[in-house]
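Page 37, top half.
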Amino acid sequence: MDRAFIFDVFGTLVDWRQGIADAAREAFGCRGLSVDPYAFADHWRACYDPAMERVRSGSRGYVPLDLLHRENLDQTLTAMGIADAFDEAARNALNRAWECLPPWPDVHQGMDRLRPFGLLAPCSNASIALSARLARFAGLRWDAVLGAEIAQDYKPRPEVYLAAARAFGLGPEQVVMVAAHNRDLAAARAAGLGTAFFARPTEYGPGQDRDLKPEEDWDLVARDLADLAGQVARRS
């Protein structure tokens, strides 16, 4: 195939907030802790970009996202005042919640409809190990697992998008980045890729105030992944 669609995963294809909150609720219930699982999920996720920025800036060498998540978990447990309730084994188990996130309802149909028109792969900040296990859990059928680890850097650095294109033997103009995040698409466009957007208006909860609409004239704008696949089919 001479075309590929590469995807942001956390937020675009899977509901990280609900998945992490569900795992936290179970862990807290076993320990008799009264902590808001959504606040816990939000805090853990808020550590995500600052941790990656240390790698992007060069102040830290590349390490896989699994390790950053684990370090961020320690920070979050401390911030929530519940660090003493989780030993090393319990922390490692909770960290694996990122491998067990539910897909949004339109994802399977959308991927199946899109598959005839190009190769499909994640272009996620997740490690290959994390991406593969999450794909098994969420039923994401990929042609390859690409993203940050093959580039040894984190989005939105251009090399992450360009490495994905090279891995498929394609030029950036033959690859479409699919994301529910305008910042991700802006970086992909700057690297020469095509762009496709649909919103996930509850990714950050009911008070979400970002990525509710396209902020640039992206190549494709859809209601969801199934609608995006329909648009691609009509244009092909």
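Page 37, bottom half:
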Amino acid sequence: MTSQPEPTIFALASAPGRAGVAVVRISGTGAGRVLDFMAAPRPEPRRAVGRAIRHPEGGTVLDRGVVLWFPSPKSFTGEDVVELHLHGGRAVVQAVLAALTVLPGLRLAEPGEFARRAFEAGKLDLAEVEGLADLIDAETEGQRRQALAQATGALSGLYEGWRASVIDALAYVEAGLDFSDEADIGEKTFAEARSIIGVLVPAVNHHLDDGHRGEILREGFRVALTGPPNAGKSSLLNALARRDAAIVSAEAGTTRDVIEVRLDLKGLPVIVSDTAGFREAAGDIEREGMRRSLAVAQAADLVLWLTDATGPRTTMPAELAAVADRTLLVLNKVDLLSGGSAPVLPDDMVPLSVKSGEGVADLVERLQVIASERIGHPGETVLTQVRHRRLVELARDSLVAFLQGASDDVELRAEDLRRAADALGRITGRVDVEDVLDQIFGRFCIGK
């Protein structure tokens, strides 16, 4: 009994809403029929041609646009693919999508279904798919470079190279098992395997010992604004965001919840969070605000302790002692000091006036330098996903077990190597990853 072909799917592949151009993508065995019914004749493969886009029932012209024909297997999904480049008005797009539903065997695509079909056709591996999702979500230049490197196989090449080394070592171990009656051969092959893994483990450890740079670049470098009430935290947030993101008032305790703004500092994503002020006397709502502030500070990559120059409080509360090693002291309202100059400050304290703007640019530069030092060079091949880190750690642990395990338990040592190879293979999808596919492809928009 022959299996039924996958249904042909379609979706708007460009952003929804009014635009100059909208792209509708169709993928599957019925894609060519869309051209035959709605934009005949089929153009030459991969050649953009102007066509009237017609309704398949009655031939009413819906739009005049550009069509592209990508016959299998030379397409994004590996299937027959058609792209209709339309005028981007909502009515035009809706009319074309409605017309496609008339054709038998076509249905609207699920989120990420085009990318999933590309993965299943071997056009992309799983790490490249995740890089593609990050590329679509990239907001800064640093994120774009990192995501593009992953989407084009930089991480996949690294992990597949490691996996190949593990498989080579496993072949030596299994050769020793085949010649278990000849002790000399078994010892030599096991020694060769340990030599390979002995070189690989330091490289894996170095890769893991990266300070989570790739994950920070992907998610954003988090900065928490903390300090006593009325120190100017909300005003500083607004100055950094260059808009009124937070309410500013002379009344103490105005900020009750955490407010975030996203900044692009020379290509690096920085997320700044305004938090409730820390003080002893507070009501129930303020205490909840301080509890949330503490949680944000503990999760932050950098904490700014902002204090008022007219009554500086440079000693942080005991609750923040755990984040002292990643805290930058900031003295605000220096414009209110006699003569407009700041008092003698600790070497690493930054003076500024949010009101006059004095020192704000210096603080932004300081934030950019700190974030850059923490993230490192964006061009390096680094871990970007928690999923990858867990699997690399699992592979490393299995490799260490192989090196430290008894050499006479050859079957167990072979199993150590199989587990390591399996963990690395799960990153790129070379082995069963069904349990994570829905989660990964669900990140995509419907047209991808």
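Margin note: The radius of gyration is 29 Å.
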